[in-house]
Write a structure and sequence with these properties.
The protein is an alpha/beta fold. Helices cover about 35% and strands about 15% of the residues. The chain is built from 9 helices and 9 strands. It starts with a helix and ends with a helix. The model has no long low-confidence stretch (mean pLDDT about 85).
């Protein structure tokens, strides 16, 4: 919940009177998002009776990690189950940004169906809620041992909305999640280190800036609309009809762009061996399980 939603929920559940709600929200917020606790009894500055009433009405349980994989280059991929049949993937990439970046999903499946993207082969199941998006950050911090939030030499410094789904088709929940993630008394990840990546949902771009103040990445995929309307290769996935360009071709293209006076850094693919690179994510709640995908990938490489 956002702070506003949490305040309203506490009042509605008769946990506290309206005049004390702001104080109580502040207490809970720091325990949940700064300390990362998953048990109300750990909240030592909240009286025992209130903790019991909170436990009766609410839960701090994390979503289930169905599968956790670690790539040869240190990338970690989590298949997370939020509810029966509702699964999405998140990817932690070390040595990106100031320390490391978490690639979060905003939808289960996707509405765009780009056939060069593995996620696009899974029809949209539903949007993720703000809580489910923020929970991906909590799950990663659990795994990295990153609580409390102000821990020195943190490994997670950046958030990128480059996982499953088109964030601008779920902008309200994405905006609320960014409010939760960037709150200075909670997870305290700077909005300047949060990037929302979009395929180009133009009508929502202004609202994204106004609501979130986050950084923006637009996936162009081509130099003109006619070519962009066609299918283009990204990272390969089992049975994908495309392959990535070879390194010499990539460098030659970058040289042309650089010569024209534009910066053209080449982003090295990470986590390909566990299908964690861009365009490779796909929850398997509807069709093939992740273990079967690895077998398919091994067979394809044989």
């Amino acid at each position: 919940m956002t702070r506003t939603a949490l305040r309203e929920a506490l009042i509605a559940a008769d946990i506290c009177a309206p005049e004390k709600a702001k104080m109580r929200v502040g207490q809970l917020w720091r325990w949940i998002h700064h300390q990362g606790v998953t048990d109300f009894d750990a909240m030592t500055n909240v009286d025992k009776e209130t903790r019991a009433r909170l436990a009766e009405r609410f839960t701090l349980a994390r979503p289930e990690i169905v599968e956790r994989q670690i790539s040869a280059d240190g990338v970690r991929k989590y298949l997370i189950r939020f509810a029966p049949g509702i699964e999405a993937e998140s990817v932690y990439i070390p040595d990106v940004g100031r320390a490391g970046a978490l690639c979060v999903s905003s939808q289960v499946g996707c509405t765009l169906n780009c056939t060069f993207c593995h996620t696009g082969t899974q029809a949209l199941v539903r949007n993720l809620t703000a809580g489910e998006i923020a929970a991906q950050v909590q799950v990663c911090r659990d795994d990295l041992g990153e609580w409390p939030s102000d821990k020195d030499e943190r490994k997670l410094s950046n958030i990128v909305f480059m996982g499953m789904g088109e964030p601008l088709y779920n902008l309200d929940n994405v905006s609320d999640a960014i409010d939760i993630i960037s709150d200075n008394e909670g997870m305290a990840l700077s909005r300047r280190r949060i990037t929302v990546s979009t395929a180009g949902v133009v009508p929502e771009l202004t609202r994204l800036g106004e609501k979130t103040g986050a950084m923006l990445a637009i996936s162009l995929h081509a130099t003109n609309d006619a070519l962009r309307d066609k299918l283009v290769p990204l990272n390969p996935w089992p049975n994908s009809p495309y392959e990535c360009s070879d390194w010499a071709t990539i460098e030659a293209f970058a040289a042309i762009v650089n010569k024209a006076g534009y910066a053209s850094p080449i982003r090295t693919p990470r986590g390909r061996d566990i299908l964690a690179a861009c365009g490779q994510l796909r929850s398997e709640s509807k069709k093939v399980r992740a273990s079967e995908l690895r077998a398919m990938a091994a067979a394809a490489g044989a």
